[in-house]
Automatic annotation (TrEMBL):
Signal peptide region: 1-20
Domain CHAT: 1075-1374
Superkingdom as given in the UniProt entry: Eukaryota
Record's protein name: CHAT domain-containing protein
Keywords: Signal
Species for this entry: Ephemerocybe angulata
InterPro entries given in the database record: CHAT_dom, TPR-like_helical_dom_sf
Length: 1375
């Protein structure tokens, strides 16, 4: 070699060395003291920040030393255990010994000790694992110690072999072993339960009890030891630097005085320095070796026999330096040298070259594992390929080298366009490997699993169904070889994925269930943090998703999402397969949205899938999957929000997905399906006929020449039918509709019977046949339509809202065309029964209300059919079953009657009561999911939702168990007429008014009647009710007495200061008289006449009869209690006839009567009144007369000798108010109120300084003494128009919270008028009470007292519209 070239290379090497020296730690003599920080109690750290310019502060026990530089240490294997914050027990010198016959242990290869505490404490470590090292024949030990809080009563130790098979367990109970009263450093031993007489293992250990009262010396010594231990695991020099720093500081005389402890510290310091010196010497030697080898390689001519030896040494030195520096350049240089050196290696020394190549490949792979850098993998693959080429066919290492080459090739080709060809080569390689493997070889399962993985990846990228068949067959062999059926976790992941794909192609559910059980078991055994765990969890989630799609069981989709969230959490967003994990999670989340219709699920799904798309590079072979999911999610989001940008993005995203996928790809049909859906949706939204034409073309293309056995045909046929129906609506060509029906019939035929998607297709088919009946009048089409709806409604799977739609259509068609059919009754029974499942207990109260909006009016429709068939009994049953569902659920959970059940089965009664309490809490207080929340919080909310779902399932199981007891067959089922009529008020009438499009009727009930009286209302109609409601609302808004876009308004008169929140403008004229007159003539007067109630003579002093009104539909928002003819010579109103109250339902009233009776007989009701006034609840308008109101009432109460308490303004907080509500039977709130129609539980009363008392907060309280609530606030009984059957207002909420009666308002009230009505109300309520101290009262006369107070206010005015609006809003609810 020319001398100048050698000098140039030498200069370049020196330059690289000087550059590397700048990046390396300072020499030993210049070593600065590195800082140490105490880990936070109870938390594991992934890294410790070392902060400069801090000092030791023994007062706060901080361990921070003065450094010269700032560094960052990253844990690689596991975090340093936190310093104990409680008394702990530490087990050291843990070892295991086999005491049986020696020959029985020759094949025993132990791998790991896993420890988990049996008790559940917040400080308990979970899923700790320790490698077992064999240090002598038949003896193993762990290097680390086991530490746990001293309050843990017992732990379980599990010993696992190299195949992850459980060998034996030890259950350590600290009381039975004596460790609870241990002596220091006491040695213990216990036999291991192995389940085999041949394997006899004994576990020994030393137990040391430690206290958190550690000295500074102990803490520094502990840190030093931890860093030394970590150096042995990481081989990183900074760990030794930190250890030396800790031991140096600990051994200072002012910290540790002279004595044995300091001598021990100095010895440990000397040991750490010696290791560090050896490490630095090794690094120096490596540099010298590289220099020397490079010099020799350059000097020795090519072809000389010694050249290959020097190149071998150079490669080894470069690899060693790369291992320590973590750089890629040294390994790349070494690989180039090995290629250059290959001709110099004699044939007999091929194994040396193989060794060199293997070292190089390992270095590249290790670098990829540590940093995620894939740039070296192709070079590693080249090295592995050359290794295989250099290995003779009969060499014993050839199968392993074939395996390593194949696995690396699979990794390199994953997600690339070269994948099909590369995997085909791998399959050929693995087939050769299997032929070389003896049937009894212990490595055969691993090699078969690798081969199955190759087949599976070939199916994924090339859509080769034969590869899937071979994969499944290969994995079956792996299962056969597994001892006792225990599959290794890393095998379970790929086997599970293969079985899932097999199910997708064949529909064999047992295969899917087998995969799920196998993956669940593997997920339980894999420690947290291992890479196999998130692969296992993600595959488990996919399997559960597929099972849910078949069965419709919400527990399965909930578990799927929870598993996939955990997989993403463990993998981290930076992991190379994070995109695939996120995509799978997104698909599962929007699949749940399709069932639950929870908008937060859809929003989160789109956000998650967007993240997956962003992480996946263009050109990735799997990019089509998240693009397809994102496009479909955007379609659904547009259908909810109506945002055109969502639809445009959906179309463009799906076009990109189709374009990025080969035309013969197995997923191409699914992509075309969703693209056609997006185009059809855009046509329906904007009317562009070109979109419809393209949708038809795309959907017809996707059904052309499907492969045999293709499982997606039902979906494709159904979607094509929807497009043809849209074409029929435009062209009116009957052939389009007929073709659509044909495709749907084929879709239904191909869908398995138990598939959850079958009711969706049955609904579509029923709709199409009904449409053809409307066009052609063929009775057969109508009958077929009814039959399909019936089958869908009674399907055992599918989402409840899908079956509810089918049942509603079934019932409606029968009622319209076959009203005399006996099937009408089971059809409506099915529909109303499904209504309760749509708003099931597994959901939050907010979401239940959201889901009920689309079914509002179903109970009224059913009742109208019953009235037309002269079945008032059935009408009442259906009205009670289908109205006020949410409040009824809350009431059931709070006041379930257990007395009779307790006599038969006390254990079951207690279990039902416990679950009821937890269900109520979960429904009213469970956190809501938002896509923007941190991922850890999402995991928590998801877990809470899953637990809520399990709780609801347990509730149903317990109810079924109770109903299996003779005599309890109808336990907590919808009440029959006979039960409804029990417990009615002793006097007065209950009148239910049903308003439906078909007809309007009233039902009158009275104690002692066997059957309700049916009162037809032919002059009233839905149209009139809506007209009256709209006219009244318009008038109230013009006067500022109604909510307008979520804001609460006050009244307009200057001297009429309202308890609203905004001040209105004046307007003239109002149809109030017309509305009240219509209600009188068409509803109230006919009912009073039918009941024989005549006008009262006030001078007689007789008490007027009482009516509890229970209106439905639009009538719920009208003041039926004030119906009358006003401003006329012959004026009369309902006030002249009866005392009016309202009740959300008949059952709500009878429940409160029962509670009132119980309270009066047991004497549990704590009498008394609590009053609060909030005159200046900023930023709302002042209501100054609230002070005078509560003070006057409080003075009256004291004069009557009643127990009373008043708090004003800042004197009351939310917590203190709740406490007073629990201690007083009556509460009077004089303040601003606001109703939240979107979230009823967020309706609230406003206190001072933005403090608010929400209905949700009230519901969480245990108001056992609740009797009367006077809500002297605005719009506390207004309700929500799209939930007219649910009584969504504060008054009904207070009834649900436990109050027996509530005084509320329908719109904003005047401050002065509110004061007048309130004081008059209590004067009348307490008029018969003496002035004795300790007097008590209840609210049983509250309706009469309000009646008198309102009449007094009414008497102050003429019957002008303004005057009417002053007293009408005051209403009474309950008993």
């Amino acid at each position: 070699m020319p001398a100048f070239l050698y000098e140039f290379l030498q200069w370049l090497l020196n330059l690289l060395k000087s550059f590397a020296a700048k990046l390396r730690p300072p020499p030993a003599e210049e070593l600065p003291l590195l800082p140490l920080m105490t880990p936070w109690p109870g938390k594991a750290h992934s890294e410790i920040d070392i902060i400069p310019e801090h000092r030791i502060d023994a007062r706060n026990e901080a361990l921070i030393l003065l450094p010269e530089t700032t560094r960052r240490f990253s844990w690689t294997e596991r975090p340093v255990p936190p310093w104990p914050t409680v008394r702990v027990i530490r087990m050291t010198n843990v070892s295991l010994e086999h005491s049986g016959i020696p020959r029985e242990v020759t094949g025993l290869r132990l791998k790991q000790l896993r420890v988990r505490p049996s008790s559940d404490t917040s400080e308990s470590p979970t899923n700790m694992w320790f490698p077992l090292r064999r240090y002598a024949p038949r003896r193993w030990r762990i290097k680390d110690f086991i530490q746990f809080p001293a309050d843990v009563q017992e732990i379980e130790c599990l010993f696992v072999d190299i195949n992850d098979k459980l060998v034996g367990t030890v259950l350590l109970n600290f009381w039975t072993t004596g460790m609870a009263e241990m002596e220091p450093n006491h040695k213990y031993r216990q036999e291991v339960e192995t389940g085999s007489d041949d394997i006899q293992l004994t576990m020994t250990w030393v137990a040391i009890e430690r206290s958190n009262q550690a000295t500074l010396t102990e803490r520094l010594s502990w840190f030093g030891g931890e860093f030394v231990d970590r150096f042995h695991r990481t081989d990183e020099l900074p760990d030794l630097d930190a250890a030396v720093s800790a031991f140096t500081k600990a051994s200072e005389p002012d910290i540790t005085p002279e004595g044995p402890e300091r001598q021990q510290l100095l010895a440990r310091l000397k040991f750490a320095r010696r290791i560090r010196s050896t490490k630095l010497t090794c690094l120096s030697n490596i540099e010298e070796a590289v220099t020397r080898c490079l010099k020799m390689v350059v000097m020795i001519p090519k072809g000389q026999p010694d050249l290959h030896r020097w190149i071998e040494r150079l490669v080894k030195s470069l690899v060693d330096r790369s291992t320590r520096d973590g750089g890629l350049s040294d390994v790349s240089e070494a690989l180039e040298e090995s290629w250059r050196a290959e001709p110099s290696f004699p044939n007999k020394d091929d194994e040396k070259l193989v060794w060199v190549l293997n070292a190089l490949a390992d270095s590249f792979c290790n670098l990829h594992e540590r940093t995620g850098n894939r740039s070296g993998l192709p070079q590693a693959l080249s090295a592995r390929r050359r290794m295989v080429q250099l290995t003779p066919g009969d060499h014993p290492a050839l199968p392993d080298r074939l395996l390593e080459f194949g696995l690396l090739s699979l990794e390199c080709s994953r997600g690339t366009s070269e994948a099909p060809g590369a995997i085909s080569e791998v399959i050929t390689t693995f087939e050769r490997m299997i032929k070389l493997t003896p049937p009894d070889d212990e490595d055969l399962p691993d090699r078969l699993a690798a081969m199955g993985q190759a087949y599976l990846q070939h199916y994924e990228c090339a859509a080769d169904l034969s590869s899937l068949t071979r994969a499944t067959s290969t994995f079956r062999k792996v299962l056969q070889l597994a001892p006792n059926g225990a599959v290794a976790p890393h095998h379970a992941v790929v086997i599970g994925a293969s079985f899932v794909r097999q199910f997708e192609q064949t529909g064999e559910q047992p295969v899917l269930e087998e995969a799920i059980e196998m993956l669940r078991e593997s997920a339980r055994t894999i420690p947290d943090g291992e890479e196999a765990l998130f692969g296992c969890l993600s595959t488990l989630g996919l399997a559960l998703l597929r099972l849910y799609e078949r069965t419709g069981d919400l527990l399965q989709i909930a578990e799927a999402i929870e598993s996939q969230r955990r997989a993403v959490h463990f993998a981290g967003i930076s992991h190379e397969i994070a995109a695939e994990l996120l995509a799978n999670l997104g698909v599962s989340t929007w699949t749940r949205f399709e069932a639950t219709e929870d908008p937060s699920d859809l929003e989160d799904a789109i956000s998650t899938i967007r993240s997956a798309v962003q992480l996946m590079p263009d050109g990735h072979t799997s990019l089509y999957a998240p693009l397809n999911s994102l496009g479909y999610g955007l379609i659904r989001q547009f259908q909810i929000t109506g945002n055109p940008s969502d639809l445009e993005e959906a179309v463009s995203t799906l076009r990109k997905a189709v374009k990025s996928t080969p035309s013969d790809h197995f997923f191409q049909r699914g992509l075309l399906n969703n693209l056609g859906d997006a185009l059809l949706c855009r046509f329906k939204a904007f009317g562009d006929s070109s979109d419809l034409a393209e949708a038809v073309i795309v959907h017809k293309r996707m059904v052309e020449n499907p492969p045999d056995g293709y499982m997606g045909l039902p979906i494709l046929f159904s979607t094509l039918a929807s497009t043809l129906v849209a074409a029929f609506e435009v062209s009116n060509q009957h052939s389009d509709l007929t073709e659509a029906i044909s495709w749907l019939q084929e879709s239904v035929r191909l869908t398995p019977e138990g598939d959850a998607s079958k009711p969706v297709r049955l609904n579509k088919l029923g709709d199409c046949l009904k449409r053809r009946f409307d066009v052609g009048g063929n009775a057969e089409d109508l009958e077929e339509s009814i039959s399909y709806f019936k089958v869908a409604a009674n399907h055992r799977s599918s989402a409840s809202h899908i079956k509810l739609k089918a049942a509603t259509s079934w019932a409606q068609l029968l009622a319209q065309y076959h009203p005399d059919s006996p099937e009408v009754w089971p059809a409506f029974d099915a529909a109303l029964g499904l209504l309760a499942t749509v708003a099931g207990l597994e959901q939050t109260v907010r979401h239940r209300y959201t889901r009920l909006q689309s079914s509002s009016g179903l109970a009224c429709m059913a009742a109208a059919v019953a009235f037309s068939q002269n079945r008032p009994d059935k009408a009442l049953e259906w009205l009670e079953q289908g109205r006020c569902l949410v409040w009824s659920q809350l009431s059931t959970l709070r006041t379930t009657p257990f007395d009779d059940l307790r006599l038969h089965d006390e254990r079951l009664s207690k279990r039902i009561a416990g679950v009821a309490k937890r269900l109520e809490s979960a429904g009213t207080s469970r956190g809501m999911f938002t896509p923007s929340m941190p991922f850890e919080e999402k995991l928590s909310v998801e877990g809470a939702g899953h637990a809520h779902l399990k709780l609801a399932r347990e509730w149903e199981d317990l109810l079924q168990e109770a109903r299996n007891i003779p005599g309890f067959e109808n336990f907590l089922r919808p009440l029959p007429l006979s039960s409804i009529l029990q417990g009615l008020p002793e006097s007065g009438f209950v009148v239910v008014v049903n308003v439906d499009t078909a007809r309007c009727d009233a039902l009158a009930l009275r104690a002692g009647w066997d059957m309700p009286i049916h009162i037809p209302l032919p002059s009233f109609s839905v149209d009139k009710a809506n007209k009256y409601r709209d006219a009244l609302n318009l008038n109230l808004r013009s006067l500022g007495l109604r909510v307008r876009e979520g804001g609460v308004l006050g009244v307009s008169d200057v001297d009429y200061e309202g308890r609203g929140i905004r001040q209105p403008a004046r307007t003239k004229g109002s149809p109030v008289h017309n509305v009240l007159r219509g209600l009188w003539d068409e509803v109230a007067k006919p009912i009073l006449d039918a009941l024989g109630i005549s006008k009262m003579d006030r001078s007689s002093g007789d008490i007027p009869p009482r009516i509890w009104w229970s209106p439905t539909g639009a009538l719920s928002f009208l003041p039926l209690h004030a119906a009358g003819r006003y401003g006329l010579p012959n004026s009369e109103s309902i006030l002249d006839y009866v005392v009016s109250s309202y009740t959300p339902s008949v059952t709500a009233l009878t429940d409160r009567i029962a509670r009132s009776t119980l309270a009066s007989t047991t004497g549990k009701l704590a009498s008394g009144i609590f009053l609060t006034a909030q005159p200046n609840a900023l930023p709302h308008s002042p209501i100054p007369k609230t002070k005078a109101e509560v003070r006057t009432i409080h003075r009256m109460a004291i004069e009557k000798g009643l127990r009373a308490r008043v708090c004003e303004g800042s004197e009351v907080t939310v917590d203190s108010c709740l406490e007073h509500m629990q201690n007083f039977s009556c509460i009077h709130l004089a303040c601003h109120g606001s109703q939240n129609v979107g979230d009823p539980l967020d309706s609230r009363f406003f206190f001072h300084e933005d403090s608010t008392l929400t209905l949700a907060t009230i519901l969480k309280s245990n108001l056992e003494n609740a009797d009367l609530a006077f809500l002297s606030a605005c719009q506390t009984s207004t309700g929500q128009e799209n939930l007219s059957d649910e009584a969504v207002h504060l008054a009904a909420g207070m009834l649900a919270a436990g109050y027996l009666r509530v005084v509320a308002t329908m719109w904003s009230i005047g401050d002065e008028h509110a004061q007048h009505v309130a004081t008059s109300f209590y004067e009348d309520l307490w008029k018969d009470i003496g002035d004795d101290q300790g007097a008590t009262f209840d609210g049983s006369r509250s309706a009469f007292a309000l009646h008198q107070a309102v009449r007094q206010l009414k008497a102050r005015f003429e019957d002008s519209e303004r005057a009417l609006l002053a007293w009408i809003p005051f209403v009474h609810f309950g008993y």
